[in-house]
Amino acid sequence: MPERIYNFSPGPATLPYPVLEEAARDIVNFHDKGIGLIELSHRSREFMAVAAETEALIRELMNVPDNYRILFLQGGASSQFFMVPMNLLAGGGRATYLNTGTWSKKAIREARLFGDIDVAFSSEATTFNRVPADDEYTVDPDSEYLYFVSNNTIYGTQFATMPAKDVMLVADMSSDILSRPVDVSRFGIIFAGAQKNMGPAGVTVVIIRDDLLDRAPDTIPTMLRYKTHADKDSMFNTPPCFAIYCVGRVMHWLREQGGVEAMEKINRKKAAMVYEAIDATDFYRGHAEKDSRSMMNISFNLPTPELEARFISEAAAAGLDGLKGHRSIGGCRASIYNAFPVEGVERLVEFMEDFARANG
Ligand SMILES: *Cc1c(COP(=O)(O)O)cnc(C)c1O
């Protein structure tokens, strides 16, 4: 293995090393066929098997019920911000949204182009430092769905449990899909861009309950209907073959780790180590309120922007890369998705302790 640094990037993010090695080999020569993976026709038997296996592994790992379809789409998670309301709010239906960060705000703006949107909760006034408890908002009874972002990548907040409301849920799980078990049957749609917790950029996984496929009005473009892609097993047009392949390899790796239950335990442990380091001194200040803390993205501040800049550059020099916070809140952020190793978290914690001692 070449020398690797620890990559805390929020996405695209670190991937399991064995997956990178396998992909590097298969790009050049796929299963000894004398042809590279990214040269295969998407209609070839070989690639069809790759796509089918990737889907089967996601279904198994997430325990996706039979009446749900799993789609591999393009246009990023951001395209789901309009595809969801376009397909589900035909003729100006109503939906409830929770505004817990940049990604929900963008989704709300798009949804308003198609339906009557009720924003039942917002933590914007406190710089999105928390997500709501169930008793802090009500869902309009005419709502087709309740939309929320399960993990707020930028602000480092996460729903500890999914909203317990008597309404179909729709969730953007881009930054915490497969990090813990989820009861898929409570959702109409779950979507996630692959580049945080599943693979490289280029594919968005959409899990959709099959009765929703027929909801879209005739007036919406073919490519933007879920049904188009469901009817053709995500092969209506050329799918992002390489990204789908990589997601499949990451799913294999995840299964070897013991699946999502085992992964949740590891994720809890990793996050607890960093939060303990934050709480141990007054030098570090976590952005999220404790009940809303994310296991995936840990956003924190130091006493001054100058110290933050020094922290980020000295950490990078020590092989801890990508700790700069998002430009909208500054400070630091450690993204520690499934594939981020425990040893890297241990190294970060040691670095944080040393840095606080030297500069505090
Ligand atoms: C990164 C991210 C997005 C945007 O994903 P794209 O694939 O770049 O469109 C949306 N939602 C969440 C929660 C994210 O973390």
C-alpha Rg (nearest Å): 21 Å
| CATH first level of the largest domain | Alpha Beta
How many distinct domains?
A: 2
Distance between the termini: 37 Å
Structural class: alpha/beta
**Which fold does the CATH topology of the largest domain refer to?**
Aspartate Aminotransferase, domain 2
Strand order across the biggest sheet? Answer: 2-10-9-8-5-3-4
Please, how many helices? 9
**Major sheet details:** 7 strands, mixed
Shape: globular
- Helix/strand order, N-terminal first: EHHEHEHEEEEEEEHHHEEHEEH
Give the distinct bound molecules.
pyridoxal-5'-phosphate
CATH architecture of the largest domain: 3-Layer(aba) Sandwich
- In CATH, what is the homologous superfamily of the largest domain? Type I PLP-dependent aspartate aminotransferase-like (Major domain)
Tell me the strand percentage band: 15-25%
Q: Which terms summarize this structure?
A:
seven-stranded mixed beta sheet; Aspartate Aminotransferase, domain 2; 17% strand; alpha/beta; three-stranded antiparallel beta sheet; 360 residues; binds pyridoxal-5'-phosphate; 2 domains
